[in-house]
User: What shape does this take?
Amino acid sequence: MVATVADTGLVLVMLWLISELANWTLEFWMILLIVLLAGIFEYFGEKKIKSVKTL
Assistant: This one.
């Protein structure tokens, strides 16, 4: 769970930096939406991997 939160924070920082440096027209709420989706995807992916390892 800690890794998921850390990775989600890293996605936020990287998307914000890249959007500023590359002059993308992403608004901050769009970045937050992408980060939220990435965090949800990673959470359930990590959960699936753990369930497969225990079999």
Observations:
- DSSP finds two helices and no strands in the chain.
- Residues 45 and 51 are 10 Å apart (CA to CA).
- Helices lie at 2-21, 28-53.
- The mean pLDDT is 89.
